[in-house]
């Protein structure tokens, strides 16, 4: 797959393609690698996201803006964007890192995306980097709700039901399987007032309850 495909996905064509190559080079591949670009890109990303949120959400308080920014620049969000770009297909890595699946490791994908942002900044400047960031992140920014951000599914479900004066759900452990050190819990979430019953699995009772609550929220919103 040619590098031109990646630049189209990013929405930016490099003047100095060596910068892009460096951004895609993991340190296991050799020198120069992308760690310094990652450091630079992290700062550019935080500034651009803060500016975009400030102008997009004009009535949101500072604390909520900070939480929204933290959600957008966290590893999980960055790695998901990197996956949507198929970034792992373009990484330059050492043989050992490749064999261990480094090209799909969330931390490496997130770092590489930051390195690319740093490379765009060096290639043309902040305005170009901010434009790339806007293209990649704006759909996520518009969909953020500061009232629900950071709350787990059980809390969101409880607040949803309380706001409508519907009795809270009942959580029941259906089964526990596996060895003591690697158990799998299956939990049922029943909301009699809505005739909703969902199941969730997890490595702990709590995580299984969260999964079941998440499924219940999806049923109500779907």
Summarize the topology.
Elements: H1 3-10, H2 17-23, H3 35-56, H4 62-73, H5 75-84, H6 95-99, H7 106-123, H8 126-142, H9 153-163, E1 170-177, E2 184-191, E3 196-202, H10 205-221
Antiparallel strand pairs: 1-2, 2-3
Helix pairs in contact: 2-7, 3-4, 3-7, 3-8, 5-7, 7-8, 9-10
What does this structure look like?
- The chain is mainly alpha-helical and 222 residues long.
- It is 57% helix and 10% strand.
- It contains 10 helices and 3 strands.
- It has helices spanning 3-10, 17-23, 35-56, 62-73, 75-84, 95-99, 106-123, 126-142, 153-163, 205-221; strands at residues 170-177, 184-191, 196-202.
- A 3-stranded antiparallel beta sheet has the order 1-2-3.
- Helix 2 runs antiparallel to helix 7 (106-123) and helix 7 crosses helix 8.
What is the rounded distance between the termini?
A: 37 Å
Residue ranges: pLDDT <50 for 5 or more in a row? Answer: none
What level of helicity do the residues show? Answer: 55-70%
Main CATH class of the largest domain: Mainly Alpha
Taking Cα atoms only, what radius of gyration do you get, to the nearest Å? Answer: 21 Å
Mean pLDDT comes to: 91
**Outline:** flat
Give the total of beta strands.
Answer: 3
Major β-sheet profile: 3 strands, antiparallel
CATH superfamily of the largest domain: Ribonuclease III domain
